[in-house]
Amino acid sequence: KQVEAMTLELASVVDEHKVKLNESYHSLQVDMAKLEQSHGEEREVLRKQVEDLQDQVINANIELLQKQEKIAGLVVEIEASQAAVANLADIPALEDRLANMATLNNELQASADKHSEVVATLEDIVANLKGDVSTLKAQLESQTVSYQNKVVQVQEMQDAHSALELALQTMQSKNEVLQESLQSTNAHCATVEAKVGALLESLAEKDGQIVQLQEELQTAELTNAQTQAGLDDAVAERTKALAEEAKRMGLVNEELRVGVDKSNAMWREKVDSIVASRDAEVAALAGQIQALELKIQNMEERNSNGGATSPDEVRSLNAQLGTLQNELDAQLEEKEALYDKIDELEKAALCNVQNQHDHVRMLQRQWDMEKATLTDRLGVQRDRINKLELVKMTKGHLEVFEKLKLNIKKKTDEVAALQQQLQASRNDDGRKVADAKLVRPLNAEVKLKLHTTQNEFQIKTSEVASLQNAIVQYEGHIDTLENQIRVHGTSSTEIDDLRRHVADLERLVQSQSQQLRGHQDNIQSLTQLRDQLAQQVAELQQLVRDKDVQLKRCEDDAASKQQEWQVANEDLHEKFHADLRYLEKENLELHLELKQTKRLMSFTGKGIASPPLPRARTTQIQHGRGVVEAIRVLPTRNFRGNLHRWALSVVVLCRDVDHRHEKVGAVHGKRSNLASVDLDVILDKVPYGFAKVDFHAASLRS
């Protein structure tokens, strides 16, 4: 009942914490919405003020332009008065004009004073705006700090809620374990007193279960030792890492503070220099105005005295007016540049505020992520601790079960002995009384053993309580670590510095990651090229190996064929010489016939009157493979036709010989000199150089 009451109380507390957490979360959301609305309204107000200032500057510039136009009109009037200075009769008109000029000068001076007042008011407005910007910055920083504190509080409440839930779960598990243990003890007592026989039957099954539980217990002890060592190592490493991070962040904060001080000093010097230059310009304008007033007074005195102005004085006045006009233009340009600088400074301040706000958000997200990871780790460690508690509790129960098993074995032995005694002496009443006396001390012993088991159970519960105390100590250590982490993240200035440093580091990391990606892409492309080249080299090597094998085969074939062709070449050489001798004989016969024809033609003078004696013979020219062609010289009346056929036979012979020598040269890798030498001999011996024979001879030589 107490446990149930405690569980109900814990459930109610958990519900209350949930409600509080939801309310705080909604309130934080409302505060954030209000802050965003207020910032938006303030930005709109500042934007409207800047627009009003810009309108005022535009109006001032318009007034200055109007004054410049008036000055230009005065210059025109002075130039017109220069023409009238020569006539002394126009002195009264000039005096009136000088009076008008004096009044215009007074008006210009008054307008210049108004303009200087407007400039002073604008400067005051700009200073007020700067102060408002600084106050807004301070408010924003304070709001960010308060928001961070609220976030920390919410996280603390969430941690407390999770701790309460874990405590409730542990209490429930402990309650269940206690109830199960009580039920098991009651069941065991009842079975010991009433159902000894049933226990004897279940002993065999329980022996196997006990062996399995012992093995599981050993594995659990090993895992417990490993997890405990891992927890100790993790806690030590985390403490070291936090100390190193604290030192590093302190150094970084000091460096960033020095940089901020330097930048503030630079900006202050720039602002002081701008203010000094503007003061000097205002003083110079005042001096120029005083000089103009003195000059105007002198001119009035001269006019009052009635002295005539010389043309040189008029020219000097015109020159002075031109210089003054140029100076006014330069001053107006400088003022416009100053207003542009003021606008740029305001824009830079707004950009800095936005960047700081973004930095705050980024760092807040990073801290949330880190805290989430830490909470996850703490949850994992707490789960491990709960598992270790359960393992140790099961170990205690196993020890109790082993003791009970031994007691049950003893009791079963005693019961068996008693049963034997009962079976031996059922009809003996005296034995029954003795058995009853024996059973009573046995029952007393059983009761004592039950008391001892209860005491052992109490001892195990005390051990569990000690383990819970150790777990509480670990949780306290973890809470101290969390507090250290929170202490390191409280100061807003350090957070700003850390944000800037983190932004710089992120930029460096991004640039380095881009460079690494480029290097990785280059490396991948190079590896792909290397693989492709390796494949190509392997293919080429395989081709070279195949070509080497083919070359070896070709060399072997060429060597065998070379021997064959050498034998055939020698045969052809011999046959060619035989054919050549035969052709020489035919050539001599043809020369003789030609001489006869020449003699006959010299006698007749009209061609061939009577042909030579007909001659019919059949020749067979032997070549490498046998008889190729038989050139038959038929008897005819036309000696020129016979000569033409002889030439064709010579050409056929030469072509066949040259073709065979080309084959032999292709096999041996060089050209034989037989064709070149013997064909030249043959062609030199051809009579009277017929056209076709000469043509084929040239082709054969080429």
From TrEMBL:
Locate the transmembrane regions by residue number.
none
Q: Which residues form a coiled coil?
A: 18-70, 119-174, 203-230, 282-348, 401-428, 464-557
Q: Keywords assigned by UniProt?
A: Coiled coil
**Protein name as it appears in the record:** Uncharacterized protein
